[in-house]
Amino acid sequence: MPSVNRMASNFVSRLTPVECSMKAQAAIVAESEVVGVASHSLVLVRKIKGNTFQTVLRAKLDDHPEGTSIRLTAGMDRIVFVFACIFMAAFALLAVAFLLAFLRVFTSFQFSDQDRRDWLFLSTPLLSLIAGVGLIQLGRYVSRHDAPFLTRLIVDAIEAKSKTELTTRQSA
Q1: How many domains does the structure of the chain reveal?
Q2: 127 with 154, same domain?
Q3: Which secondary structure element, helix H or strand E, spans residue 59, and what is its range?
Q4: Per-residue pLDDT for the chain (172 aa), expressed as one digit of tens each?
Q5: pLDDT at 94
Q6: Distances (CA, A) of 144 to 3, 26, 75, 134, 149
Q7: Which of 20, 79, 107, 118 is the most exposed place for a label (fewest CB within 10 A)?
Q8: Residues 19 and 71 reside in one and the same domain
């Protein structure tokens, strides 16, 4: 089974998109470790007891001549990603402001000679920015097992086959 941690995976099911969403919803309800929603065009699933970055599997369902084309992606929940970006941007702006004050670019906005010697004070925004990147990487590492579990759950429920498997079978 292909991994969907970083890239999208393409599958095909013989079922219609509505049947796929109904089977996916039934699998979500039957599995006690997950929660999710399913519509005729999109299925979203995540583990209940997961990591703080909330790994979410997104399955886009489209009509296909053989049934339904499914595009699976898994990753950090988008709202968590947005808040992480806002947090990181705030600390990046603080780091730039501290750098401008340290270099005495503006006469009204600069640190005193005593403040310029306090490296911990000056480096705090940069250290926070580095810590934020580290936390995101740690969250990705912790969630490495969530995506394959969620992928297997949905692919098995909707009886999907990988598009690469189908093309190699047809060409052989």
Answers
A1: 2
A2: no
A3: strand 55-64
A4: 344 344 568 999 999 999 999 999 999 999 998 999 999 999 999 888 766 667 889 999 999 888 899 999 888 777 877 888 898 888 888 888 878 887 777 777 777 777 777 777 777 888 888 888 888 788 777 777 888 889 999 999 998 888 776 556 556 5
A5: 83
A6: 10, 25, 9, 16, 10
A7: 107
A8: yes
Q: What pLDDT sits at residue 167?
A: 59
61 and 109 inside one domain: no
The phi and psi torsions of 69 (rounded to 5 degrees) equal -90, 130
Same domain, 39 and 93: no
Question: How many CB atoms are located within 10 Å of the residue 125 CB?
Answer: 19
Given this model, what pLDDT does residue 6 score? Answer: 44
Question: Which of 43, 8, 135, 142 is CA-nearest to residue 81?
Answer: 135
| DSSP code at position 81 | H
In a domain, 171, yes or no: no
Tokens of 13: 């099911």
Both tokens of 111, joined, read: 């640190």
123 C-beta neighbours (distance < 10 Å), count: 14
Structural domain contains residue 169: no
CATH number at residue 33: 3.30.310.80
Euclidean distance between CA atoms 60 and 146, whole angstroms: 18
Cα–Cα dist 17/23, whole Å:
10
